[in-house]
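so my prof wants the structure for this chain in the tokens format not the other one, which i didnt know existed until like an hour ago. anyway here's the sequence
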Amino acid sequence: MIDHQVRVHPSADRLPRREQLAWRLAAVATATQEAAELDPEAAAMAVNRVIDNAAVATASLRRRPVAVARTQAAPHRATPGASVFGTGGRVSPEWAAWANGTAVRELDFHDTYLAADYSHPGDNIPPLLAVAQHTGRSGADVLRGIVAAYEIHVALVKGICLHAHRIDHVAHLGAATACGIGAMLRLPVETVYQAVGQVVHTTTATRQSRKGEISSWKAFAPAFAAKAAIEAVDRAMRGEGAPSPIYEGEDGFLARMLDGPGAAYTVTLPEPGEARRAILDTYTKEHSAEYQAQAVIDLARRLREKAGPLDRVRSVVLHTSHHTHHVIGSGANDPQKYDPAVGRETLDHSVPYIFAVALEDGVWHHERSYARERARRPSTVELWQKISTVEDPDWTRRYHDPDPARRAFGGRAVITRDDGTVLEGELAVADAHPSGARPFDRDGYTGKFRTLTEGIVTPAGQDAFLGTASRLAELDTEALTGLFPEADTEAVAAYDAKLPKGLF
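here's what i got, hopefully its the right format
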């Protein structure tokens, strides 16, 4: 691996393109090996994530934000176009990426990578599939693009923290998607470089989308970045340029959005010919909630029988990392995280709520655990209000450990009863994490797909999709349609018809 030092340069420096981060990202992406030369484990994991995305997208077909995105996309018909989950038609690739990206993100249930910043690198897959279908690419091309996008995404998340400046993490997603498309289409470095500059410039937004009363925009945000990335690649292919240097310029991303004129970062990228294995550092979710809550849910399930009558609990304190405390814990200082009247988007970013429900129920369900009546259950509300988080420096250190095998995203729970007795327990990583008690393998992804699509996709349809996905590297363009499970399109259309009309 090569450590690239990235800092702000005044315009007078005339920083050469080949020394700019955007160029280095583009060069790594476009040098990605052919599918047959990819690391076998990385290629297998890419297939797992295609399965994972389809599972969570299909489960969300009748959720309002997904239906809105789908109906926005529907009028933009194109030939050959790209498929949309839950429909039989095809639309232009940027709109397919919009609809499918929203479906994948809606349940907060697909893959994650946490380091200096946050990310959901599976958000790169919908735009890659859409462009592949529209441009006549093969499954091997898609596979190459996915591995490249993950490589770039993970490198950026490791090296450049956005959260410290309250910038939303989709700013890294747009760059990764542009690079993945460039790798898939075998575009010149210059073209990808310009696309990266354009999309970083246009997709930088604040983290208010994940603060206070969180709206459905949380689901739309990555799809917006994906759509912008496709449009940026299209413009760059037509010869249009971008603000440059986008990262290092004196009025650029680092200087004005992040650490200021003295900003300096280290982004580590693979050497030419080095295996692209960053996708193996990422992990999916067993539970439909913010990733830092995954281990908390598993911990609550373990403590449930030992906790005794929950109406006798005086307080629960979760000792955890800075990120968990300040993003989904009481350290966020968001009263909405304790409000039974808020929506799902806010509840899945409230670890006090999540711990209360998991402690009461011993299970977590992507719909029932967020139901309005569930959030307003008197016993839940009473317990919920007694739960708080505190930052523990040791958990913060473990969260940022450079060794993925030692990195921890959980915490320690201290439950104090009315009689003064105390129950404690801790869990470093979720059971499904690669270092957890039950790491997800292909069977885990397959099981998650079958569970989430039950009643939506027939058993025969499930088998057909899984068989197609497992042969990703062998698929021709036509066969890529099989990566969209066959659902009841009439039922989906009937749901869509009830929505208010917009402009399109």
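also thought this was worth mentioning. The domain at 291-427 is CATH 3.30.1330.120 (60s Ribosomal Protein L30; Chain: A;).
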